[in-house]
Design goal:
Elements: H1 10-14, E1 23-30, E2 33-49, E3 62-78, E4 81-83, E5 86-105, E6 111-130, E7 134-146, E8 151-166, E9 169-186, E10 189-206
Antiparallel strand pairs: 1-2, 2-3, 3-5, 4-5, 5-6, 6-7, 7-8, 8-9, 9-10
Length: 208
C-alpha cells in the first residue's frame, strides 16, 4: 500500500515552538589548523492539528506531539587568510542530526513516529575578527546531502559576538540557523521535510 509522504509544518502542525536548549562550543587551534565542535539539544512538546498526512494520521487530526532534535557539529578548518585581526579559514565539517517526531492522536488510539539520524558532510568556512577584548566569529556550511535516509539541501550558519572582560575569560552571544529541505524514506515511510530551526544563545567560557 502507498503511504503518503510527510510534509507537515513542525511549528503549526506539531506545536513545536521556542524552547530553552543547552548549548556548548569548544575551539582548539594549532598553527594554521583549527577544530571547532558545537552542539545543542532541542526538545518541545505540545498540541497541534496536522496540516498534512503524517503516516497513518490524516490531515486535520488533533494530536499531542514530542519533537526532539540533537545536533553535533564538528569542523576542521585551515587558515587561508590571517592578517592582523582578520582570519578566514575554509575547511570541512560534519553535522550530525538526530531528529525524532512523535505524534499521538487525541481523539483515538494512534501513534506515529519519525526518526532520522543523518551525518551530513559540509563544505565549510569560518571567519573571525579579533580586536582583543572584542571579537566576531561566523561559521557557514552547506552541502547537497544524498544519503540513505535523506536526499536534499542542508545549510548551517552560526554567528557569535564575544567579549573578554578578564584575561582568559570570555562571554559570548550569538545566533544559530539550520535549514534542511529534502525527502527520503525511514522504516518504509516516505517523508518530505522542510525544516528550519533558528535561535539565540548566550554563554561564557575560558581560553587557555
Amino acid at each position: 500500500s502507498m503511504v503518503p509522504a510527510i510534509g507537515a509544518n513542525l511549528e503549526d502542525a506539531f506545536g513545536a515552538g521556542a524552547e530553552s536548549s543547552p548549548y556548548g562550543r569548544v575551539e582548539l587551534g594549532a598553527g594554521i589548523t583549527n577544530l571547532t565542535v558545537s552542539a545543542f539539544d532541542y526538545k518541545s512538546s505540545g498540541p497541534g492539528t496536522l496540516n498534512a498526512n503524517f503516516g497513518s494520521l490524516t490531515v486535520g487530526t488533533a494530536i499531542e506531539s514530542d519533537v526532539k532534535l540533537l545536533n553535533i557539529k564538528s569542523a576542521v578548518t585551515f587558515d587561508l587568510i590571517n592578517v592582523g585581526p582578520l582570519r578566514i579559514a575554509p575547511g570541512v565539517a560534519v553535522d550530525y542530526v538526530d531528529l525524532e517526531v512523535v505524534a499521538r492522536a487525541t481523539a483515538f488510539t494512534a501513534l506515529e513516529r519519525l526518526e532520522v539520524k543523518v551525518p551530513a558532510p559540509l563544505g565549510y568556512v569560518q571567519g573571525d575578527l579579533d580586536l582583543g577584548w572584542f571579537g566576531v566569529t561566523a561559521d557557514f556550511g552547506a552541502m547537497r546531502v544524498n544519503l540513505d535516509q535523506v536526499d536534499g539541501n542542508y545549510m548551517d550558519f552560526e554567528g557569535l559576538v564575544h567579549v573578554s572582560p578578564l584575561p582568559h575569560m570570555q562571554m559570548f552571544g550569538g545566533y544559530r540557523w539550520i535549514t534542511l529541505h529534502g525527502n527520503g524514506e525511514v522504516d518504509s515511510q516516505p517523508y518530505d521535510a522542510d525544516v528550519e530551526l533558528g535561535g539565540w544563545f548566550v554563554g561564557g567560557g575560558f581560553s587557555f
